[in-house]
Amino acid sequence: MESGTVFDDVTFLSALIAVSQLQQLHLAKQLHAYVIKNERKLPLMVANAILVMYSRCGSIHTSFEIFDKMPVRDVISWNTMVSAFVQNGLDDEGLLLVYEMQKQGFLVDSVTVTAILSAASNLRNQEIGKQTHAYLLRHGIKFEGMDSYTIDMYAKSGLIRNSQILFEKSNSSNRDQATWNAMIAGLAQNGLIEEAIVVFRKMLQQNVVPNAVTLASVLPACSLMGNIDFGFRHSA
């Protein structure tokens, strides 16, 4: 970057987002150093963008060091760090941070809940998953993708019947592709091959177009049933 050039916060944000998308750690470090040099006090939105940038570049520890030193945090700061932990396989750390977030008076939102459900799925933790689902129901919280995340969480935690109950309670005409995929994959992963095929047929009857994720569950299921022709016929 040229010496003497002055950038405003919008330019910094644009640059931080660009480096996040490139996922180049050496560029992230250079840009971060430049931001610090030219900003006496980092605006919160810029600090949050730096957290995202380092997380996307795979430097989760640097991201947390910055987070830990932030004098002011908002819910975006907390959610960014929680999601970063979970996305990088540090599920326990993510859940501990949610606990700390609540202790400091921040309310969880749809982003937080999505991360919690993902962590519960990864850890196969039935108790956390059930508590989170109960929290959603108790507070009437709904957000896009909630059903698919919850179905996936129960299926991976070995509570496939809970997944099925939740799936059946949802309005079949309003189920999106992700919800169908979560149910099909959950059944297949739990060895309920025939039931997975039945749900796949219902998906087609509802004119929901399968994608690569659907077929990744259906084709092996068809193969195990000795009915691979069925799977390929519907994947054409």
Automatic annotation (TrEMBL):
Keyword line: Repeat
NCBIfam families: PPR
Protein name: Pentatricopeptide repeat-containing protein
Entry-linked InterPro entries: PPR_At4g14850-like_plant, PPR_rpt, TPR-like_helical_dom_sf
One of the GO biological process terms: RNA modification
Pfam families per record: PPR (PF01535), PPR_2 (PF13041)
GO MF, one annotated term: RNA binding
Species per Swiss-Prot/TrEMBL record: Gossypium mustelinum
PPR repeat start-end pairs: 74-108, 176-210
Top-level division of the source organism's lineage: Eukaryota
